[in-house]
Design a protein that fits this description.
By secondary structure, this protein is mainly beta. Helices cover 5% and strands 36% of the residues. It contains two helices and 15 strands. The strands form two sheets. The protein has a nine-stranded mixed beta sheet. Strands 10-11-14-13-12-15 form a six-stranded antiparallel beta barrel. Strand 3 and strand 4 (42-46) form a beta hairpin.
Length: 266
């Protein structure tokens, strides 16, 4: 029988679902089956995973999917110190026992929130098309640069502004490097990246101490990290630090007084 025939059958269906979570370079795979399953060379570990029904609606708020999973599962633990630095994607595959070669993708999106209750964590997922309903960013007439650091508008090559360093100590959000030749403030507004792809924004830099926006779970002394120079999005920093003034995305010479009236512009 085919997947469609099994799915519509009253008695012949034996569904198995595969849950593939991804965050950067990290991937976690689980299955609702009693035993581990292999799909596309990835092993899906048997786990306690439950979800509510997939609903198709023109109201995006009603199209969310809720997945219940043990609280000590590595996926909800990504939120234990605050929201993760990147998107956590989820793809759900479904097939029937005896028809493992006929697999359907029944849901794809991202995890938007996590709630804990007792020994369980509930993940709230948004479908991939949910972002289409959100108002997108627009270019604005402002003094500060509107580009994200190292994006296509900024044009800077992030690898050219990256230092490789070794962590010497960790105290909550403060990560100290073994050595650093950069002046204080050099990495403020930049970010620290680990070998597993995890990133944390740097909100303060003094000497060898980096204060991260939130704790980086699992980071240990002796670990090698990549540290990227930061920017405060002012014209002076773009010109003097990065020599990138031609690509500056702000308007530093906005007059402070409205030439058409008595009021100020800013």
């Amino acid at each position: 029988m085919t997947y469609a025939a099994r799915e519509s059958s009253i008695y012949g269906g034996q569904p198995v679902e595969l849950y593939r979570f991804s965050a950067g370079l990290q991937v976690w795979t689980f299955t609702s089956a009693e035993h581990d399953r292999t799909y596309l060379s990835e092993v899906y570990r048997a786990a306690q995973v439950e979800r509510d029904g997939v609903e198709l609606s023109d109201e995006l708020a009603r199209s969310q999917l809720r997945i219940t999973i043990p609280r000590d599962n590595p996926v909800p633990l990504l939120w234990r110190a605050g929201p993760p630095d990147g998107l956590v994607g989820l793809t759900i595959f479904r097939f029937h026992v005896g028809e493992a070669g006929d697999v359907a993708t029944i849901w794809k999106g991202r995890i938007a929130a996590v709630e804990w209750a007792g020994s369980e964590a509930t993940l709230t997922g948004e479908p991939v098309y949910a972002s289409l309903a959100r108002p997108m960013l627009r270019q604005r007439y402002q003094r500060l640069c509107r580009h994200a650091l190292y994006d296509g508008g900024c044009t800077l090559d992030r690898e050219a502004w990256m230092d490789i360093a070794t962590v010497s100590a960790v105290a909550g959000e403060v990560v100290s490097l073994a050595t650093s030749t950069r002046p204080s403030g050099w990495f403020t507004g930049g970010y620290l990246q680990r070998a597993n792809g995890q990133r944390r924004m740097i909100r303060a830099h003094s000497g060898v101490a980096l204060t991260l926006l939130s704790v980086a779970p699992g980071i240990q002394p002796g670990e090698a990290v990549q540290v990227y120079a930061g920017c405060d999005h002012t014209h002076a920093t773009c010109q003097d630090k990065f020599a990138n003034a031609p690509n500056f995305g702000g308007f530093p010479f906005i007059p402070t007084k409205n030439p058409f009236g008595a009021g100020g512009i800013l």
